[in-house]
Design a protein that fits this description.
Order of helices and strands: EE
Structural class: mainly beta
Largest sheet: 2 strands, antiparallel
Number of strands: 2
Number of helices: 0
Strand order of the largest sheet: 1-2
Oligomer: single chain
Strand content: 15-25%
Helix content: under 10%
């Protein structure tokens, strides 16, 4: 198994203006590490794949 740090990945430019780093992707899946600072949020959008949020620290609201 290959072990990597999320900080080793570059921030991916995105329309939300947040720290988002693609850790892995395929035709049907993206694994993205997102860091939101207090007050930051994702704009409402539609994704071509299912989404799972795993919160490591803090709390937030997810609107589906």
């Amino acid at each position: 198994m290959k072990s990597v740090k999320w900080t080793d990945f570059e921030i991916t430019p995105n329309p939300h203006g947040i720290d988002a780093r693609i850790l892995w992707e395929s035709e049907h899946l993206q694994l993205v590490h997102i860091t939101l600072k207090p007050g930051e949020k994702l704009k409402k959008h539609i994704t071509p794949v299912n989404v799972i949020f795993y919160v490591l620290e803090g709390k937030g609201i997810i609107e589906i």
